[in-house]
Design a protein that fits this description.
9-stranded mixed β-sheet; alpha/beta; single chain; Rossmann fold
C-alpha cells in the first residue's frame, strides 16, 4: 500500500509540474476610455464596432514592448485584462458611448439596426524602448455604410505618448493615454463624416 501511495504522489507531483508550469502573473493592467470626452458634433446613426483585426503577436493579452525597431517582446509577469484587440474594442465602445454624441453604438451580436460599421486593424500596440521611451498605438479604420457595404472613408490613426521609463507600469499608463487619444480621434473622424 505504501508503494502505491508513493507512486500516486509521484504521478500527481509530475502532473502538477507539467500543468502548472505557466508564468505567474503579478499584475493585470486595465486600459480605459475617457469618461466624458469633449467631442464636437453628433449623429442619430447607429454604429457597430467589430473587434479590430491584428497579427498574432498583437492579438495577445501580454504587454508588448519593442526593444529594437524589428523586435517585439513582452513584459514578464504582467498582462492586459484581455487580448489587445478586445481591449481596444472596449475602449472605443466606451468612448463612443461616454461621449453621448452617437445615438447607439454596439458590438456584433447585439441586434442593433446598424447604419455604419467602423472596421479597424491594429497595426501597433506597444511600448518602444529604443531611442527613448514611448508607447505607440496605430489603428487603420474604414467607415463602412452597412446598407450597401461601401467604404465611405479610410484613415490610419497614430497615438504616440512619451513615458518616463521602460517599466511595465509606465508602459501601461502610456498605453492608457494613447488608447484614449486614438479612440477620441476615431470618434471625431466618424462624426465629421456621418
Amino acid at each position: 500500500m505504501n508503494c502505491l501511495r508513493a507512486f500516486v504522489l509521484c504521478i500527481a507531483a509530475a502532473l502538477g509540474a507539467c500543468g502548472g508550469g505557466g508564468e505567474k502573473i503579478e499584475a493585470i493592467y486595465q486600459i480605459s476610455a475617457p469618461t466624458a470626452p469633449a467631442i464636437a458634433g453628433a449623429t442619430s446613426a447607429q454604429v457597430l464596432l467589430p473587434e479590430p483585426r491584428a497579427l498574432a503577436a498583437l492579438a495577445s493579452n501580454k504587454l508588448p514592448v519593442k526593444p529594437t525597431p524589428i523586435t517585439l517582446s513582452y513584459y514578464p509577469s504582467v498582462s492586459l485584462e484581455d487580448t489587445a484587440p478586445k481591449v481596444m474594442q472596449r475602449v472605443m465602445l466606451d468612448t463612443f458611448t461616454n461621449s453621448g454624441r452617437v445615438r447607439a453604438v454596439g458590438l456584433p451580436g447585439q441586434s442593433l439596426l446598424i447604419n455604419y460599421q467602423i472596421v479597424t486593424e491594429m497595426r501597433a500596440f506597444q511600448a518602444e524602448t529604443y531611442e527613448g521611451n514611448r508607447v505607440r498605438i496605430v489603428m487603420a479604420a474604414k467607415l463602412l455604410n452597412d446598407a450597401n457595404g461601401r467604404v465611405l472613408r479610410d484613415e490610419v490613426f497614430t497615438a504616440t505618448v512619451p513615458v518616463s521609463s521602460d517599466s511595465a507600469e509606465d508602459a501601461a499608463i502610456g498605453l492608457n493615454a494613447a488608447a484614449e487619444a486614438i479612440s477620441r480621434d476615431i470618434l471625431d473622424w466618424t462624426l465629421a463624416i456621418i
